[in-house]
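Dear support,

Our group has been running a series of protein-ligand predictions, and this particular one with beta-D-mannopyranose is the one our PI (initials K.S.) wants archived with full inputs and outputs. We had some confusion internally about which version of the output was final, so please treat the block below as the authoritative record. The input we submitted was:
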Amino acid sequence: MADIKIIGSSLAAIPWQDKPANCPAPVWRYSENPIIGRNPLPDVARIFNSAVMPYGDGFIGVFRGEQRNGIPNIYLGRSSDALHWEFEPEKILFTDENGKPFMPLYAYDPRLVKVEDTYYIMWCQDAFGPTIGVAKTTDFKHFQRLENPYLPYNRNAVLFPRKINGNYVMLSRPCDNGHTAFGDIFLSESPDMLFWGRHRHVMGKSDNWWENLKIGGGAAPIETNKGWLLFYHGVVNTCNGYVYSIGAAILDIDEPSRVIHRCENYILAPEEWYEERGFVPNVCFPCAALTDADTGRIAIYYGCADSYVGVAFTTIDELYEYILAHDKLWEGDDTPGRR
Ligand code: BMA
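Confirmed final output from the archive:
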């Protein structure tokens, strides 16, 4: 055994199913997937690419809801078991620092991360091109937007769940304003969640076919005694369009722009009907993970085919062993990413 441990809270209520006997992979799907079906709200046709976390006696989440006018926005959901969700019918009302409504023109692919006593939501929105929006809340009633951390164009921002060397740290993926055909994961630091800098390259696409076009951060990194476990998405361009799979890497704990281990195999790729068939076929897009430090259980939340939300399970031991057994670093991975 590799003696890897999650550094985090206990979560006895984490959704869980044991690994099926015939499963060849390190990650297995919840048998009742998808957990959110079509038309979940009167105004929302599809919910996918969404993030959840423990809150109070249960769970809370920020959900990408595709409105019937085609514009995505972010909806709040609550659950007692993290599998059955109830949504607020209206999209989240974001305000500026004076409490005045300050809504993005659109907002998609939200992540939700708690740092100290504050919950941060980050998403992709327009600011003269797609870039990252951020808001904070402590009560899930008031959501105050902060300054946008990056210039356009940028997507897939993911905050680390604690400060590192005294600073907030966020991953992001610079892009263009279309269906970007390139993209590496970068890291930026901030002393205050307002001013961002010290940008570093973390990792790029690789020659592994499933991630040879672009990659992007997925769930908030999970702290372990061996480094930060990062779930990310990797994309290949096929003759039938982009295919999104889920990859895993371990980043250095104090200098997370350094990749220590990187799994050359994807850990989950589209193969079930709800991943292969939908508004955009062949998409597995991770945005969150629940963890239980006591048992090492992990529940990954991922968008399926731009139409549904799915859950998949693994344990930190099983996944780490798999990563080590298929470990392959690429040029620039094991460097601070500064030029
Ligand atoms: C990406 C993002 C995701 C989406 C994916 C597949 O560029 O826009 O929201 O899931 O494309 O369509």
